[in-house]
Amino acid sequence: MSQQPIFPNSLRDAVTAIRQQNKAFDPTIGIILGSGMGSLVDHVQGSVAIDYHNIPGFPIPKVQGHQGRLVMGMLAGQNVACLQGRVHFYEGDVSLFLRQMVRTLKLLGCHTLLVTNAAGSLRTDMPAGSVMMITDHLNYSIPNPLVGLNDDEIGPRFIGMDQAYDNILQQKMRVAAASIKMKLYEGIYLGCRGPNFETPAEIRAFIRLGADAVGMSTIPEVILARHCGLRVAGLSLITNLGAGMSHELLTHEHTLQQAAKSSAALQQLVLGFLKTIAIN
Ligand code: HPA
Hints:
CATH architecture: 3-Layer(aba) Sandwich
Number of helices: 6
CATH class: Alpha Beta
Strand content: 15-25%
Number of strands: 9
CATH superfamily: Nucleoside phosphorylase domain
Shape: globular
Bound molecules: hypoxanthine
CATH topology: Rossmann fold
Structural class: alpha/beta
Strand order of the largest sheet: 5-8-7-6-9
Largest sheet: 5 strands, mixed, barrel
Number of domains: 1
Helix content: 25-40%
């Protein structure tokens, strides 16, 4: 007989706090919104938003472009829980926050996690404004949020990452892109800890390693999601070419501006994707 996982107290406290605000809501899809993509929540119907500071163990995001709210409601026919604001390892050791956020989605009932981010492109044929579906990743220097004692009730000590980005969800994403006639790029996301952007020499090395896009987030959430059994789909919104590939000056403001400019395309894809997901 399979046993229900017993989640530790602080996780239960987070879920209790959320349920107090939104009693009978059972989300099935968790969505993490990247820099400049928070406006996806404007499409959420019957939304209930809870500030992170009202959820035990959640962080207060300090990075411009990351609001810090959990927004729940219906999006394209699915019950979703959107994390509008994430934390990054360039802010310090954020493992506990990340664990709390991802595992709370799981405990609320989500079976799937859609992660989005802003990223630099390592391919000249994938310019700013492109949307890339993440098919796999390379962890270059982001700490692993599972380091430390393992909680066997949440997931096993050692996990496989061969299906980090679920094949079936990838296929659904392709169908969704085709249905809105959007060119969907596909590739490998390489994660750096940041907060500095990469050097041109690093970008050249990453191209040789086989990466297609580079960013400072996502990988920890994907590791945590796989650990607790969530299926993952990932999208990168390309905001620039990698350092040294153009004359553009890379700044966070530039990332936010570019993400805001083309986030509508990513949002349409997310809506189409949610429509193609059958609950199983
Ligand atoms: N490098 C790292 N992170 C990023 C980039 C980049 O070029 N663009 C957006 N996020």
